[in-house]
Amino acid sequence: MGLIKKLSRPPLSIFLIILAIIISLLLNNFAIASVSNIEFIGQTLLPTGLTYQKTEIGGLSGITYDNKNDLYYAISDDRGEKADPRFYTLKIDLSKGNLTKDSVVPMKVTTLLNENNRPFPTRSTDTEGIAYSSKQTLFISSEGDVKRSINPFIKEFSLASGQEITTLPIPDKFLPNQNGTQGIRDNLAFESLTITPNEKYLFTANENALVQDGTVAKTGIGSSCRILQYNLLTKQPEKEFLYQTEPVTSLFNITGRFASGLPDILALDNKGNFLSIERSFTGIGFAIFLFHFSLENADDIHNIKSISAISHKQIKPVKKKLLLDLRTLDVPLDNIEGLTFGPKLPDGKQSLILISDNNFNQLQTTQILAFKVKIQLESPFYRLLRRIRNLPLIR
């Protein structure tokens, strides 16, 4: 008789490792994220007129973080008048758990190149949003120029060379028509851009309502924006959601200038949770608000051509929660337009960076604000359990 060898059981450590991997995947792909305990940890101001590699640093209207290289990429909305359309690579040192005046260092300037491998012509772009992809690419949005019949775009560029790779299609309802009855409004289009952690979806939003959707934000009146979702596997738009900005009242607005809107959003998880900033110029300064919003139970409105043509009561908008009114900070606020997560801080909490567009105005600066936030992850199982516990007892 041959000897029958007993199969040895895998050690317990193998099972624990496999379990840890499964739990990690569940957390990353299915967990629902929320933010709490927001703490301001400093600011840096870059003066208007500061130059780097023969370009003026300014108009920084969007920022994104490269976790692999611990670098940030900030897009300039200069339309090629100061230098060719471009983005900047920045080093932001948060190793001591705070942001100081010397924490931000420019590292590189990269010119954006079009499909012909040439810089974009002057005034053909208004680049506002930026989002980093682990494929070593950047997605960048442009608001276009309605007055000059230049459409907005969302394009993918090589991080290393700045060369254009792909262009995402824009749904027709966002494109202005000749008689001005539909589409984006001038300078109120795709300011925002973000990619989900699993890199399956890209989101953007128009800063104020499309012409056919309602009015622009006015003093004491919000605006109806559309959150636009793309599938990055197919490179096609899929869904749209209603985002209603908050009404903000102007203060001592002698000039009559008032501007308010949705300049950026940031994906928290893969389940439709985001941070957003709403920015208003009130006549004597800026009002900046940080929100959490969720797509949960919000209606997909991509088949609705005009929001104003139907009752708002028929549409479930995204759910919003105010996290922070930045006017409560002990710092004067500038024109904040971009936000991104940075690295984990020494205490293990998550960093959050906000950046301002100085409009190349000598009365303004490029303001970079840093925060420490606590991100809580809730698995679908515990979410279901919590909901069951909150159900009323049946007697």
Layout of strands and helices, then pairs:
Blueprint: H1 12-30, E1 32-47, E2 51-52, E3 55-56, E4 60-66, E5 71-76, E6 86-92, E7 104-111, E8 127-133, E9 137-142, E10 153-158, E11 164-168, E12 194-195, E13 201-205, E14 224-231, E15 236-244, E16 259-267, E17 273-281, E18 286-294, E19 319-325, E20 336-344, E21 350-356, E22 365-378, H2 380-389
Antiparallel strand pairs: 1-22, 2-3, 4-5, 5-6, 6-7, 8-9, 9-10, 10-11, 12-13, 13-14, 14-15, 16-17, 17-18, 18-19, 20-21, 21-22
- Output the strand order for the largest sheet: 1-22-21-20
Query: How large, in whole angstroms, is the Cα Rg?
Result: 23 Å
Uncertain residue segments: 1-7
Order of helices and strands: HEEEEEEEEEEEEEEEEEEEEEEH
What's the mean pLDDT score?
A: 90
Cα shape = globular
Share in helix? under 10%
Give the helix/strand class: mainly beta
Total beta strand runs? 22
Q: What is the beta-strand fraction? A: 35-45%
Main pleated sheet: 4 strands, antiparallel
Cα end-to-end separation: 68 Å
Q: DSSP helix count?
A: 2
